[in-house]
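Re-run requested by the PI after the first attempt was lost when the workstation crashed. Everything re-entered from the original request form. Ligand of interest: NAP.
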Amino acid sequence: MNRTENGKRPVNVAILGATGSVGQELLKLLDERKFPFANLKLLASARSKGSTIPFKGKQYPVEEANRDSFAGVDILFSAAGASVSKELALLAVEAGAVVIDKTSAFRMEPSVPLVVPEVNGHVLEGHHGLIAVPNCSTSQLVVVLKPLHDLAGLKRVIVSTYQSVSGAGKKAINELEQQIKAIVHNQEYPPSIFQKQIAFNLIPQIDQFLSDGYTKEEDKLIQETRKILDLPNLPITCTAVRVPVVVSHSESVLCEFEHPISPAQARVALAASSAIEVWDNPEENLYPTPLDAAGQDPVYVGRIRKDTSSDTGLHLWVVADNLRIGAALNALHIAEYLLEHNLLRQPVVN
Ligand SMILES: NC(=O)c1ccc[n+]([C@@H]2O[C@H](COP(=O)([O-])OP(=O)(O)OC[C@H]3O[C@@H](n4cnc5c(N)ncnc54)[C@H](OP(=O)(O)O)[C@@H]3O)[C@@H](O)[C@H]2O)c1
């Protein structure tokens, strides 16, 4: 058996949804971060069966996922949609895998840890095989809220999101690109993934509407933020908007605190987090944009200023790559934490 320098054996990894946006980003990150895997299994739907994906100089076959796909798998990254996770994730757990689930299938179940390791990694100690990764817009938000809450106590949060099309998967990226091309050539390209035309537009609806007038996406951000920060009664509200950007979600965040803090204090607290880069200098027009964040690992924060409508409020602008910190990188950080703390189902240490 191969062993890494620290005596741990490399683990068997499978990616469910390997042909999708998140699955492809995961593959890039496994390589970039030199994740110590022994075997790699790539799973997708029947549509992809028989295709191959090049990775680290080899061609890996894509297999159709089914209930027998998980024997010998230590870690399953599940990124093929909530319905697929509901059907297959527990079977993978039964087969001995730890499932790191990118979908919304199990996030709000009390027994399932919902994790951003930089914020609440400690809850991984109590996992039962199934671990949920938050929605992309939640991940970048909690990374920023945590140090501010530790500094001054959150009293209220108001978030407006500006979410890129890649958050809706590879077909959504294609719709934006094709629609732009069609429109500049005076041709029609009716929407099919989005509810309205996304090219040269924005859409104040992500996912379905609920009976209270919020969308499911807004509700996810609210509920998941409370769960991760362990603040079940935090007053928090959200408007989630889809914008014609390919990668990176942006958020305008207004926080009210128990105690007043200055923008300078907030900058220091945020800059102390290894997950955050503060880009904030109005004199030099320095603030993060989606293009700055695309392909990068940090959560970027700028435009930090006092709220003019309350004594204890701060306004911030938060931008991050939704496929990385919002999905694949967060999932990989969880896997690295599990390895480091020996939290897989089958021990990996001598
Ligand atoms: N994109 C983001 O920023 C983001 C962030 C957080 C969470 N998520 C969540 O992560 C999941 C994947 O998102 P994505 O953006 O990567 O979607 P995507 O680009 O549309 O990819 C979907 C993947 O799922 C596979 N799949 C679909 N139906 C399947 C089935 N019945 N059995 C097995 N595999 C199946 C597809 O395989 P084929 O190629 O064979 O169709 C493809 O690999 C979703 O639940 C999404 O909500 C996404």
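Saved to the shared folder this time. Residues 138-322 form a domain with the Dihydrodipicolinate Reductase; domain 2 fold (CATH 3.30.360.10).
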